[in-house]
Amino acid sequence: MSRLVETGRSALRSALERVGRGWGRVQERRPLSHDLLESDDAYLVVFDAPGVRGEDVDVTFLDRTVEVNLERFRDFYDGYDLVFPGRGVSLSGSVDLPNDADVTPEGANATLTRNGTLHVEIPKRGGSSDVDVVEESD
Fold first, then answer.
1. 119 neighbors 57 (Cβ within 8 angstroms)
2. Which of the four pLDDT bands, split at 50, 70 and 90, describes residue 127?
3. Residue 35 phi/psi, 5° resolution?
4. 36 vs 120: CA distance, rounded Å
5. How far is C-alpha 34 from the chain's CA centre?
6. Structural domains in the chain?
7. DSSP symbols for 100-119
8. pTM surpassing 0.70?
9. Residue 30's CB: how many other CB atoms inside 10 A?
10. Neighbour count for residue 108 (Cβ, 10 Å)
11. Residue 53 and residue 47: Cα distance in Å, rounded?
């Protein structure tokens, strides 16, 4: 009976791993969720960026498009085995600012917050450039 139970557990674990990997690939193909906000002086794009460190974030601004690429890594926990690898590790997204947006990359900034969001602020008035990412300290 023990052999049957172990075989069943092994089959279940294998199935969960396949489902988890598949779900991770689905997440990697879907664009990052985001909000686009506007003030008198700037646009603010807020991306969901859970489990990411500042050095693993790439933000680029070109014309009126903000592009974000995130690489996140899975932490290992002592005494635990990964059963369901359900989180995607390479995530990306982009946001097109409105057609009439007159913005500038000078002074643009990106902040990775402790609660897992990435805030990209682009001042109003024209250009193209990379954006530095700053990680919020504890």
1. no
2. very low
3. -125, 145
4. 10
5. 10
6. 1-74+84-126 (2.60.40.790)
7. T--B-STT-EEEE-TTSEEE
8. no
9. 12
10. 21
11. 14
How many other C-beta atoms are found inside a 10 Å radius of the C-beta of residue 16? 15
Give the integer Cα–Cα distance in Å for 112 and 55: 10
Q: Token pair for residue 123?
A: 């001042």
pLDDT tens digits along 35-74: 999 998 899 999 988 788 888 899 998 888 999 999 877 6
How is residue 99 annotated by DSSP?
A: T
Q: How many helices (H) and strands (E) does the chain have?
A: 1, 9
CB atoms within 10 A of CB 68: 25
**Cα 36 from Cα 45, distance rounded (Å):** 5
The CB-based long-range contact list for 122-127 (8 Å cut-off, 24+ gap) reads 122/42, 122/43, 122/44, 122/45, 122/61, 122/66, 122/97, 123/41, 123/42, 124/41, 124/42, 124/43, 126/102, 127/103
Residue type, 95: V
Looking up tokens 């603010």, which residue turns up?
Answer: 44
CB distance 110 to 118 below 8 Å: yes
